[in-house]
Amino acid sequence: MTHWQDIDKDIGDWITQDGVEQFKKWPCIKRRMVVSPNARWLETEKQYMADVKEGWDATSIHHAYHFARFAESLDIRIDEIASIVEIGGGYGDACNVACDLGFRGTYSIFDLPNVSKIQRFYLQNAKCSVNFITDVAALKHQYYSYPSLALATWSISEIEDAETRCDILMALNRVDYFLFALQGEWNGRDNLKYFEQWAYWRLGEWKLEKIQHIDDNYYLMGRA
Predict the structure, then answer these.
(1) 3-state secondary structure string across the chain
(2) CA proximity to 29, closest of 86, 110, 97, 91
(3) Taking Cα atoms as reference points, which of 95, 34, 40 lies closest to residue 64?
(4) Residue 156, pLDDT score
(5) What is the pLDDT of residue 2?
(6) In angstroms, how far is the first alpha carbon of the chain from the final one?
(7) What is the Cα–Cα distance from 189 to 212, expressed in whole angstroms?
(8) Could you tell me how far CA 116 lies from the centroid of its own chain?
(9) Is the CB of residue 196 less than 8 Å from the CB of residue 208?
(10) Cα dihedral sign for 175, 66, 96, 26?
(11) Domain 3-223 adopts which CATH fold?
(12) Whole-number Å distance between alpha carbons of 179 and 70
C-alpha cells in the first residue's frame, strides 16, 4: 500500500466512525491538509498578497499565495482561467479559494475515493461547477476549456509508483497552464531532476522557482 493509499484508508475509517461532517477534527486531515495558523512562514505569504479575503483561514491564505505567485509569474489571473484540474485536492479548499478570486469555470479534482467523499461534502455549495474524478482512465478522457490550468501542490511529487505518476502527467497533455509545488527530494527521489526532465520533454515556457520561505521546496510553473 502506498503513502497516499494509507492516508485514504485512514480517512475511510474515520468516515465510517464519525461521518464526513466531522472531517476537520481528524488527525489525518490536520496533519496533511490543514495549515496551522502558527506556521512560521504564513506571515510571509500574507504580506505578499494585496488582498486577503475576509473569512480565509491559514489554509486558504496558503492556497491564495500559490495563485498569486502563478499570476505574477505567467501574467494570467485565476479569474481568467476557464477550467482547472487539480491533482490531489486536499479537502477542497483550493477550489473555494479559486472561486473567491473570481473563477467561474469547471473545476475538476482528481483524488482517492475517500478523500473525494470529503471534497463532495465540503464543496456542495461551491460557486463553480465541480467535477470529481477518482480513476486515472477517466482523467485521461477529460477535456478542458481554454485556457486551462493543472494544479498539483505536493501531490504528483509524492506519488511513489512511477507508472501512476507517468499516467497522470500524460493525462494532462491537453492542459495549457501548469502550477506545481514540489519538494526537491521525496523519499530519496530527486524530484527536481524528474520534473525538469518532464518539462523539457513537455515543451513550452517553464519557470522553476524556489519557495524561499519553505526549505527545499519549489514551484514549477509554465504554459505549454
Answers:
(1) CCHHHHHHHHHHHHHHHHCHHHHHHCHHHHHHHCCCCCCCCHHHHHHHCCCCCCCCCHHHHHHHHHHHHHHHHHCCCHHHCCEEEEECCCCCHHHHHHHHCCCCCEEEEECCHHHHHHHHHHCCCCCCEEEEECCHHHHHCCCCCCCEEEEEECCHHHCCCHHHHHHHHHHCCCCCEEEEEEECEECCEEHHHHHHHHHHHHCCEEEEEECCCCCCEEEEEEEC
(2) 91
(3) 95
(4) 96
(5) 75
(6) 34
(7) 21
(8) 13
(9) yes
(10) positive
(11) Rossmann fold (3.40.50)
(12) 7
Which distant-in-sequence residues (6+ apart) come within 8 Å of 197 by Cβ? none
Task: Give dist(CA 31, CA 208) in Å, integer.
Answer: 27
Q: Indicate the pairing of strand 177-183 with strand 217-223.
A: antiparallel
pLDDT of residue 3: 78
Cβ pair 223, 187 in contact under 8 A: no
Spans of the chain below 50 pLDDT: none
Say if CB 130 and CB 107 are below 8 A apart.
Answer: yes
φ, ψ for residue 184 (rounded to 5)?
A: -60, -35
pLDDT at 41: 95
Q: In whole angstroms, what is the distance from residue 94 CA to residue 17 CA?
A: 26
**Predicted TM-score of the model (pTM):** 0.96
Per residue in 14-47, pLDDT (tens digit) is 999 999 999 999 999 999 999 999 999 999 999 9
- Residue 125 identity: N
